[in-house]
Amino acid sequence: MPSTPAARTPRAALAELLAGNRRFVSGQPVHGHDVTAAAAVASGDQQPYAVVLGCIDSRVPLEAIFDQTFGSICVIRTGAHVLDRAVCGSIEYVVGQLGVRLVMVLGHERCGAVGSAVDALRTGRRPGGALAYVVDRIVPAVAEVGVDDPAAHPLAVRRHVRRTVAALRADDLLAAPVAAGEVAVVGALYDLATGEVTLLPEGETRNRPPG
Fold first, then answer.
1. Which domain does 114 fall in, by range?
2. How confident is the model over 22-76, as pLDDT tens digits?
3. Residue 211 within any structural domain of the chain
4. What does the alpha-carbon distance between residue 25 and residue 71 come to, in Å, rounded to a whole number?
5. 157: CATH
6. Which of 81, 90, 101, 141 has its CA 20 to 30 A from that of 74?
7. Closest CA to 66 of 25, 5, 9
8. CA 45/CA 93 separation, integer angstroms
């Protein structure tokens, strides 16, 4: 079990997440999500050390790929980790009220939502319904890499992660603890074939937030 948030640093939280991913990739997870583990943390206050914002893709179950048990991490999933006020408010809550030190934005290859945004720009046909809201928030990343590039989809996946990281670092209630080094917001990519999580180089996440 991870130590309490008060005893953690962003670096320690990130190391623990990545260590869990290495256990998962090597086929040696230690957490089986048994009901007894749920019961063990049911009576006390939750003390997560990280929040992971990922995609709704069924191939990317976040607790499993980081080999985390009940009470360890908070998980938020939207199509292509798109931000809205509810998502930002949830992250503000776990950072401000639960003492979480690490926010990870996790993208993945062959993301369907990013693919929809690429198609929308290439064809000029915007989807209807609430899906349009999701696509509209990915389109700027696609536009930045250019739809004429044959690698537009994978490049847009990375760019969209970078933009999401930048937006969270500039969030009204997160900017100060991030600037002080008390909280880290990092971007990463998940490989569907190998199960491996790879951090985006820090230089890739220092772009301007979406405007």
1. 5-205
2. 998 898 888 776 556 656 667 677 889 999 999 999 999 999 999 998 889 999 9
3. no
4. 22
5. 3.40.1050.10
6. 141
7. 25
8. 15
